Amino acid sequence: MQGDVDRRRSHMGDNITREVHRTQRYERLLRRSKQEDLSSIAALHCFYLGGRDRRGRPFFVFVGQRFRPAELDLEKALLYVIDVMDGVVNEDYSVVYLHALTTSDNHVPLSFLREVYDSLELRYRKRLAAVYIVHPTWWTRVVTWWFTTFTASEIRHKVHTVPGVEYLYCLIPPDQIDLPRFVLDYDYMVNGVRYCDFPITQSSARQ
Predict the structure, then answer these.
(1) 165-185, pLDDT tens digit by residue?
(2) What are the chain's domains?
């Protein structure tokens, strides 16, 4: 009995220690994000703050086709993510990932996903309301399964696939999100027009 209590206390202490170390590292990264020149990452326009979704929450957009990790300083990319998100994530927020027209050159390395996830403070995970993957493929499904199974199991229920832009508009008003022209063209090519005539729900978003 006492042994179980001691193990629980030890586990709790380990968790607290990890979060303290994570917070300290995050604060160092945040300071660097304000000091370093991140204009080369910003110029890609691959990660940016959108407007508000239909529940009034802010959201961020990640354009996969504009992200080429082999050509980037990934440490600067992490600093840019922190710089963009830090002042927003004190309230619930969501993330929209646009996968249209990506190739293997655009695929985000799992090691970088882990690096980002492990670098962000607890509030990022607690305030994350949803991740929407637009135009999913087998690759996004495999990576999502792997990442939410072995690294971020606590956000698995927050990740949803969205088969097309019209479904996305059921979640986010069109005037609140700046979609690249090629995403709209791709959506028209694969889905046609007016293919969504009902409000999207969490269950239908998981198709």
Answers:
(1) 999 999 999 999 999 999 999
(2) 2-205 (3.40.525.10)
